[in-house]
Amino acid sequence: MKNLKKLTTLSSAVIALLAVGYTNSAGATSVVTQWNDAALAAIRVSHPSPTVVSRALAITHTCIYDAWTAYDQNALSSRQNKQLLRPSNEHNTANKTMAISYAAHQCLTDLFPDQAESFDSLMLMLGYNPTDNSVDMASPAGVGNLAAYAVLNFRHQDGSNQLGNLQVGSYADYTGYNPVNTIAEIIDLNHWQPLFVNGKAQQFVTPHWGKVTPYALTSGSQFRKELRTPADYNKEPERYLSQATEILGYTAHLTDEKKAIAEYWADGPSSELPPGHWTIIASNCVSARDNYTLDQDVKLFFSMTNAVFDAGIAVWDAKRYFDYVRPVTAIRYLFAGQRVASWQGMVDGANWEPYQPANSVTPPFAEYISGHSAFSTAAAETLKLFTNSDLLNCYATVAAGSSKVEPGVVPAEDVFLYWGTFTDAANEAGISRRYGGIHFSDGDLESRKLGRLVAQQAWEKTQMLFNNDENSYRLRQDN
């Protein structure tokens, strides 16, 4: 191996994503990855939910892509087709870079207004005026601003409730969701139970998300019928008990490697979460590896983030529809009064804990299906399609003692995680949630299946846009 290069650090300073000696052709990141990094920094500061992260990244890279299309003869923008197209003599890297930057700046300032100063700073570093709100199509700044305004105006009405117009509070639920179970009482063991975490009751995060307008799907429920119905406590007691027993087995026999896998992919509330994690993989293990140009970076991030965005919509549609119980609730109920093996040793089943930090013992939304699995599979499938290969060849080192669950103790030695293929990485992300006691097997495996279906449909639309063939795509959807 030559010139091992430490790449962008994830949520913990001791967990670094590494690539095997890759730099891009210019020895520096493109403006696309710079703006992606700015988005990730904003996400880490503001701590939005996984759904909001996936939307923010998709919108950012859609604004970037739409601005870029003004300087590309073939590609169609997502909102304005060829309305912003500039003459061919203006199709140069300088104009593309400037338009992209103004689009990203407008977009991120809209999505993360409290962090506008940091986006202004990046503009100044790039040599641009952050206060230039020109809408003159003859200038790259005007092109970028117009492209961003079109996308943002559309997305402000997409059902996400970003502006809080449908209910007080940005991204607040407007559908009237109420959990079947309460913190104090389990009324139906098939349904999600909020827990008391960090001194307050959990609230189901974005239960309305299945209603958000997707990028390529016809609706959030499009592929719901493809999912296996989760085990019913009353009708399928053996299947229900089996899935809970399997999770007990996973968490009782965790090696340091499996613990490292559970924590590495956890992407907790202080991180860039799974949608952001996969943009780091795309940047450091695809773009840098393959010496991508600015044009390729624009297309790479646009295609992947929109597939991941749609995956989140489909997953949250299922989470709301099935409203399914988390392992922690099922196991504590089923095994209360019994001694069970766990990562903490033998415990009363009523006191069983997932392998998670105490301040985020289990996510604040229903189990079925897994967001991690769908986000990761949709990203991996898109990267496979984009690169025409499943080859990834990337790795991470989890430092000794870096655990948030067992700090200073686990792992006893550095753990080396390696993924030869995109599929390997996505599968490991999926099973990590079983190791952590967060998801049942069906929640993981069915979500992987959904992620592949979503990615394929998103890719079909993306190819139509890249190749100036949106009419054919719309005709195919209508039929």
TrEMBL record:
This one is known as Phosphoesterase
Keywords for the protein's UniProt record, in alphabetical order: Signal
Protein's UniProt keywords contain Signal: yes
Pfam families attached to this UniProt entry = DUF6851 (PF21167), VCPO_2nd (PF22778)
InterPro entries xref list:
Br/Cl_peroxidase_C, DUF6851, NapH1-like_2nd, PAP2/HPO_sf, V-haloperoxidase
This protein's record includes keyword Signal: yes
- GO molecular-function annotation terms? peroxidase activity
> Vanadium-dependent haloperoxidase NapH1-like second helical-bundle domain spans which residues?
300-463
- Which organism is the protein's source? Crenothrix polyspora
Where do the DUF6851 domain residues begin and end?
Answer: 60-194
Q: Show the CDD domains listed in the entry.
A: PAP2_haloperoxidase (cd03398)
Q: Which residues form the signal peptide?
A: 1-28
